[in-house]
Amino acid sequence: MAFPSRYPPDLVDAVVQRVADARIVKAYGAVTTVARQLDLDPRIVQKWVTKATAPQAQQADRGADGTGPGHDYLVPGLLRCKFCHQAVALAETAAAAPAYLCGNDCWPRPLDAVVIADHVGRAILRHAPRIVPFPAGTPARPHLAAMHAHRILTCVTVGASAHDMTLTWRAVPVASPDRWETERAKRVAAARDLAARDPLRARQLLHRSLTGIDPATAAPHAMHAEAGTLLAALHLRLGELDAAIRWAGYAHHSANHLYGPTHRRSLHALHLFAAAHRSAGHHQRAYHLYRQLGEHFASSDGPRGDRTLSVHATTALVLHDLGHCQAAQDLLADTIATQRRERPGNPTTARMTRHLARIRQDCATKSHHHEDGER
């Protein structure tokens, strides 16, 4: 059969969409069926479909979908090898198209990522099309559906070929974040990048991302906790201590609930919370928070760990602020001795020694008399 050298783009798009629709109902033979119905050569229909599902086309789809460019058709970690059960990732191959490769060499050759995504996407469109947020008038493309696979699938296992695939479905789909939450996340990410060089702009972005969130009453939320931690650090840096205390308190409470008290995010928020109270002159509250932080570090790093000793030194300074001069001197002297023994030459030792000399000089200036006779 002879066919024209050029077909109208509208006709090509219509044929590709018709093949996609046919594949939702019938997994195989869709190209031949559509070509026969429209009196077209199956070879050219296959060429159009292949071009429409090529990696470059998928990148354009991703840009239109608001997810950005890239080749990760499935969320990393979702695809696993059927034989070793390990997660597989995209591999660098000589082929033009991206491919998956088992790290344990269970497969004789890489598997085309476009084909994998196509199989997964068609299964989603067949069994759970409502989870895919297609804008009105947008064709239901399998590769766009595959980008939402993690919301409806817990795992995709594949053998030596793309046809040897098993999908494990979730009992309840994971909700897709709404547009407002997506905008919040973007602002938090931008503020994180700006915090060092433009703190005022970063603070503005974080305030916008936390619009409507009251730190005194808000429920624990991962993204809000991260934003609150960043905002507390910026407020502390800018000397806005009341706001720093509010947001550090929320971030600490939220991180404790979400991750547990010993998680790094919880400990970072606790440190901010203690520092904000100390800067505001709330020395009693700061003392208890630093004691709590020191106990966590002693449990995780050991009593002579670097972070443990650093917090002990700060706790000694807070004790001095509270007027407990002898207790402050004893704790700081013990901390310095341990630091010298465990980490000779550590530059923080000199700073601790200067603080100890200042505390002793303050006691002498104020003519303090301690029980052991030291001044």
Automatic annotation (TrEMBL):
Query: What is the superkingdom listed in this entry's lineage?
Result: Bacteria
What InterPro entries does the record tag this protein with?
TPR-like_helical_dom_sf (IPR011990)
What is the protein named?
Tetratricopeptide repeat protein
Taxonomic source organism: Micromonospora fulviviridis
The root-end lineage is: Bacteria, Bacillati, Actinomycetota, Actinomycetes, Micromonosporales
